[in-house]
Design goal:
With 217 residues, this protein is an alpha+beta fold. 45% of the residues lie in helices and 17% in strands. The chain has a 6-stranded mixed beta sheet, sandwiched between helices.
């Protein structure tokens, strides 16, 4: 099971296809739910892949998606402690990948908590401020560092100079400093639609239990 979880964290929803996980539901908006039942597993892993990323940051608001990911990770892990669960977020140019790891008896409750954080729960301004300061400090510390120069040149080469996907994932200090909870919640409302997400669930679950959590279209 640990091998499967490690792979799941790397490839996210693609694991369901690689393991032959059946498609449970297909949403009208393009979202899909895959289930890879593993009765011998000791944990349940859920990956939600939203078709958005830092390439969709608003003009002048570069770093919005990344900062939202930082807040979801920090606030999510705080809220999920009582479920013995944890969450990780990875932001790519066109993908916002959220991975949840939880015990079988708590995964549904943990997913409900996380779903609220990804949709309707207010984002605490205090947590946004802490995350923003961490990002600001990192940008300041790494300013002019060879790795930053390499990343910029690589992005320009891969996507083309001027392409939104070539913009820095973390943004710049000038673009990050004005970001607040309201800005992150606007991005969340516009871009993180659960009906558009590709979702994969693996572990000791059944299609019925997954359907109870995510429903069917």
């Amino acid at each position: 099971m640990m091998h499967r979880l490690a792979l799941f964290r790397i490839v996210g929803p693609a694991l369901a296809l690689a393991c032959g996980g059946p498609l449970l539901a297909q949403g009208a908006s393009g979202g899909r739910v895959f289930v890879d039942a593993d009765p011998t597993g000791r944990m349940v892993a859920v990956a939600l892949s939203f078709p958005t990323g830092h390439a969709h940051d608003p003009q002048g608001g570069e770093g919005t998606a990344f900062l939202l990911g930082e807040v979801v990770t920090a606030e999510g892990n705080l809220r999920l402690t009582r479920h013995n669960a944890q969450v990780e977020v990875r932001v790519e140019p066109s993908r916002f990948l959220v991975t949840l790891l939880a015990p079988p008896e708590r995964w549904a409750a943990a997913m409900g908590e996380l779903r609220g954080l990804l949709s309707s729960s207010p984002l605490p301004e205090s947590e946004v401020t802490r995350a923003r300061i961490r990002v600001e400090n990192r940008l300041l510390f790494e300013s002019g560092a060879p790795i930053r120069i390499f990343e910029r040149e690589k992005a320009a080469f891969l996507f083309g100079a001027g392409d939104p996907a070539a913009r820095p994932r973390e943004g710049t200090r000038a673009s990050v400093i004005p970001l607040d909870a309201a800005a992150l919640m606007r991005f969340r409302e516009d871009r993180l639609q659960i009906d558009n997400a590709t979702i994969a669930v693996t572990g000791p679950v059944t299609p019925t239990s997954v359907e109870q959590v995510f429903g069917t279209p």
